[in-house]
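Exercise: predict the fold of this chain.
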Amino acid sequence: MTTEPESEPGPRPVRSKGLLWMVVLVVLIAAGALWGASALIWVGQRFRTPFGTEVTAGVTGADLRPELVPVALAALAAVAAVLATGGLLRRVVGALVVIAGGLLAWRVYQQFNFGWFAYGTAGSVPPGSTPIGQMSTQPGGPLLMTAGAVLLLVAGLLVVFRAGRMPAMGAKYSAPGTAKPKSHDPDRQLWNELDAGRDPTEDQDR
């Protein structure tokens, strides 16, 4: 009796740990870029104080874009979620990462098209100080924000469309005492017993 071709199981998708860890690395780099963007000076202004001295006041990315630090922290949480989940739930996490990257990209667009100076800089200088020259912009912070947004978009899209090719890591960290499959290798079986908290010599004594 022959087996119908239609009844043969299809090939299982090849799962790649390299793709999973690449996504994790990209999200971590994005989180670091957003954190750095929040700490850098975006806008600077020189002032002459009433005492005859000159000071420079600056506005950081965290002042201009308060969402930078929360999104960076959310990206770190997304790393753990991607590692611990699989299937549809992992795709949902990827979609949330895409949304976060898209929102940041929109904020970058607003920043470059509708002006830099959402906040003044005079609050950090002595009262009565007068500005000298024009406000100066520092491109480092906005560029880091742009890079973080792009990296989040790329990582999120990879998770959404390639989640089936990424292994689920959650099962690797199962609770202590969880039964593990028996191995024919004595050394492997010994390590499995020790990892489960059992004495491997008990069965031999019996």
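Check your answer against the key: Confidence is low (pLDDT under 50) at residues 1-11, 171-180.
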